[in-house]
Amino acid sequence: MFNPTLLTQIDALKARLDRIRPLAPDLVENLREVYNIRLTYHSNAIEGNTLTQSETQIVIEKGITIGGKPLKDHLEAINHVEAIDFIRDLAMDERAIAEWDIRQIHGLVCKGDRGAGAYRTVNVMAAGSNYRYPDAIMVPELMQGFGKWLHSNPALHPVEIATEIHYRLVTIHPFQDGNGRTARLLMNLSLLRSGYPIAVIKTEDRSAYIDAIVAWQSGGDNSALNQTIAKCVEYSLVEILSLAGEGL
């Protein structure tokens, strides 16, 4: 479960942000650039991408390749920013998130790969644990069920919904590759739709983040992942308020 005190703090921060909206256009543009780079760097680094944050910025903003770094890492950065732009546009749409949207997000994240946007056809186990993901033959049915859950408008706090979305997708593990990046984008799509800023799980917190997912998958304890994502949301809210001159 969620720490109610933390959710109360998040609610208070969100209310303060709502009171000063709309933010100045220059600040909005700066935040877009900052969070595009930050989310891309950290989300890709969690999965093993070797670009630093400054290198990620150069690749995205300048289109310059970094000597000694794999072409794959450059393409992952470019693809990820396209996927962020996609979820920002999708956040403005009032319809419920659909299964097709998830496949579109994955298709952008893994653009150029043979399996982009396609469900996996082989069985897989989680690296670093004994958790076995659902059999590939079950993936289409599980994703249909996930889509129905998204349409059901669960009676949860928006941060709880975003966390649940992340957990459900990585646990179904519908794609051969790119599940984590897609889940973090889908989580942020849900947050953006509820008026929250993008939340970034940092690469330095990777071990604790992975352990939190494993704890939920193996024993049903969701508290660590809930806390991890809620703290990321809180951090973004505090940062944006500070940049807007509304520091604590």
Describe this structure in words.
- This protein is mostly helical and 248 residues long.
- The protein has one domain (4-243): Fic-like fold.
- The chain has ten helices and no strands.
- The longest helix is centred in the N-terminal third of the chain and has 22 residues, at 25-46.
- The mean pLDDT is 95.
Quick description:
By secondary structure, the chain is an all-alpha fold. It has ten helices and no strands. Helix 2 (25-46) crosses helix 3.
Largest sheet: none
CATH C-level category? Mainly Alpha
Total domain modules: 1
Number of strands: 0
Average per-residue pLDDT, rounded, comes to: 95
Structural class: mainly alpha
Strand content: under 5%
Globally, the shape reads globular
CATH architectural designation: Orthogonal Bundle
CATH topology tier name: Fic-like fold
- Cα-atom radius of gyration: 18 Å
Low-confidence stretches: none
Helix percent reads: 55-70%
Can you say what the CATH homologous superfamily is? Answer: Fido-like domain
Number of helices: 10
> Kindly, what is the distance between the CA atoms of the first and last residues, rounded to a whole number of angstroms?
27 Å
The helix/strand order is HHHHHHHHHH
